[in-house]
Design brief:
Blueprint: E1 8-9, E2 15-16, E3 19-20, H1 25-34, E4 44-51, E5 57-63, E6 69-74, H2 80-94, H3 99-109, H4 115-123, E7 136-142, H5 147-158, E8 163-173, E9 176-183, H6 187-195, E10 209-212, H7 221-227, E11 229-232, H8 236-239, E12 250-255, E13 259-266, E14 271-272, E15 277-280, E16 283-286, H9 287-290, E17 309-318, E18 337-338, H10 343-355
Parallel strand pairs: 6-7, 7-8, 10-12
Antiparallel strand pairs: 1-2, 3-8, 4-5, 5-6, 8-9, 10-18, 11-17, 12-13, 13-17, 14-17, 15-16
Length: 364
């Protein structure tokens, strides 16, 4: 059933706002360029009306914190089904872009600016050129979707294609207009699909989970080892992939800039910082009372969007940061958790099992 939003003015009785429209979809594009967070809090725009050489132009291009490239197509005067087909065609073009190509696209979009510098300023982390455009997402922007287009997008999503639709509706409010936004599919599903897009269509997932643990001011690897957890926060893009983990899953943990530091078994479901309890020599205690080596976004503990989230882990084997395993060719990704389906991940796990021989033990 097509997604529709209704808005009422708070009175007695409530007064429904009348649905309106923008003069044209170019206005929406201009709004997004002026305020990219209208599109997403978690992406950085890098291109606009980029010529693909395939007889068309991508409306907008963005990059996610893990380096995934996001293709954004506005409906304009095409049917939604035509937009989906066009976007898939553009995705085939995007799959061939290397780091230099993406940097050149950004120079055309923001002359005299540096993609690496602006990426660092936007996301607070270094741009890993090896991870840039390892995967991509497709987003169709429209005011309405027909039933068949919804079925097509759902079908592609279920089969691991990272595609989504973003629905904008405009409402009249006196002399002004209001705009609403709704996703067809939970964005975290598209994020997970993007992070697990196969490099080889015949490469099965090996059953091993990967985690990027951002050691620093926000969280501490030493705390994680002592109290048995992995965590992420500071925005839903970072925290919500923790949801893919469940009890019994084995997860390999990498600290960006250091290397792989541990392997463990998940023992429970993800919980917010306000609810997560850890075991101490004096009994169970709230994590924020005892994990004092980092901040864990304490200022946002009551904000579900920005709070830190925790997953309990029984460590099988860990090493300190100075002993991290960091070798040429090992897999890396900025997603807090993902289930990679690339030959590189399979070879990485094979190598890590040699370096962490207790990977299949009962834990330390």
């Amino acid at each position: 059933m097509p997604i529709r939003t209704a808005i009422w003015k708070v009175t007695t009785p409530p007064e429904p706002l009348v649905e309106s429209s923008l003069p044209n979809e170019r206005v929406l594009e201009e709004m997004i360029v002026a305020a990219p967070r209208l599109l997403s809090e978690e992406w950085m725009l890098i291109g606009r009306q980029e010529d693909t050489g395939l007889g068309g132009r991508v409306d907008l291009l963005a990059v996610a914190p893990d380096g995934a490239v996001v293709l954004i197509e506005l409906k304009r005067d095409r049917t939604p089904r035509e937009v989906v087909a066009q976007a898939l065609d553009y995705a085939s073009w995007a799959s061939g872009l290397d780091a230099d190509d993406v940097a050149a696209i950004y120079r055309r979009f923001a002359p005299d600016r540096s993609l690496a510098d602006d990426f660092r300023g936007r996301f607070g982390q270094e741009l890993d050129e090896d991870a840039l455009n390892q995967s991509h997402q497709i987003v169709v922007v429209a005011a309405t979707l027909d039933d068949s287009t919804e079925r097509i997008i759902a079908y592609l999503t279920e089969r691991g294609i990272a595609i989504n639709a973003l629905l904008f509706q405009v409402f009249a409010y006196g002399e002004e207009q209001l705009i609403s936004r709704a996703w067809l599919i939970d964005p975290v599903r598209a994020q997970v699909s993007s992070a697990t897009t196969p490099g080889d269509p015949n490469e099965p997932w090996n059953g091993e989970f990967y985690s990027s643990f951002g050691h620093g001011d926000s969280r501490s690897w030493e705390d994680a080892v002592e109290y048995g957890f992995i965590c992420a926060g500071g925005g839903s893009w970072y925290s919500r992939t923790l949801d893919v983990l469940g009890p019994g899953d084995r997860v390999w943990v990498r600290v960006p800039g250091s290397g792989f530091v541990g392997v463990g078994r998940v023992t429970g479901q993800v919980q917010s910082a306000a609810d997560f309890m850890v075991t101490t020599p004096h009994g169970n205690a709230p994590v924020l009372e005892v994990a004092r080596r980092a901040n864990y976004h304490r200022e946002s503990v009551d904000d579900p969007e920005w709070s830190e989230y925790f997953v309990p882990v029984q460590w099988l084997q860990t090493v300190p940061l100075e002993g991290a395993v960091d070798e040429v060719g090992l897999f890396g990704n900025q997603n807090s958790v993902c289930k990679p389906t690339t030959p590189r991940w399979r070879s990485t796990v094979d190598r890590l099992k040699e370096r962490f021989p207790a990977f299949d033990s009962d834990g330390a």
